[in-house]
Amino acid sequence: MSPEDPRTARTKARLRESLLAECADRALAEVSVSAVARRAGVGRATFYLHYEDLAALAVDACAEVVHAAVDALHAWQTGPGSRAPSEPPAALAAFFSRVAGHAPLYRTLLLPGGAGPLGERLHRELHARARAERAAVGAPHADLVASAVAAAFTGVLADWLHGQVEATPAELAGRVWSLLLALHRAV
Questions:
Q1: Is the four-CA dihedral 138, 143, 144, 149 of positive or negative sign?
Q2: Which residues have CB under 8 Å from 164's CB, separation 6+?
Q3: For residues 1 and 13, what is the distance between their CA atoms, to the nearest angstrom?
Q4: DSSP 26
Q5: pTM here?
Q6: Closest by Cα among 180, 28, 29 to 92
Q7: Helix and strand counts by DSSP (H, E) for the chain
Q8: Angle at 97 (CA atoms; ends 150, 168), nearest 5 degrees
Q9: CA Rg, the chain, in Å?
Q10: Rounded distance, CA 147 to CA 149, Å?
Q11: pLDDT one-digit tens code per residue, 61-108
């Protein structure tokens, strides 16, 4: 994959920032391509050069949450084969706090149970990371555990965002961490 042209990267970054700013004031369904493009300082045609629609831009804008989630879950690792601590990494609670700040947008893209375009992306990336790490240390059932970890984390995050799981970000981090450790140790 070739590196992205710097102008394209800047334009996409402005569009992502514009969408997040627009969604701070109203729901994604109430945001228009025109408003996003105007705020970003680009034309509608430029918008459509980079994104099919607002949903595609929203998933791209929220992709950072996917990377942040994966990184937060693995922040404790200092090297291959490191043993997971019993307490969650501080990055996990910080992640949940950041997500809460854009909850209305994330709820649009991450449906209860973990469905939706953001849920699919989060599940896919968590699964790949968990599988690779288990395989690297020779842990058994890498695919099974990776699937369970990805599904559990994505589902719990979605349900928390939709108010079906009540917890503060710190409480949720502790509960999720315990759940994920149990999944890793189950097989």
A1: positive
A2: 112
A3: 19
A4: S
A5: 0.82
A6: 180
A7: 9, 0
A8: 85
A9: 18
A10: 6
A11: 888 778 888 888 877 765 666 677 888 888 899 999 988 988 888 898
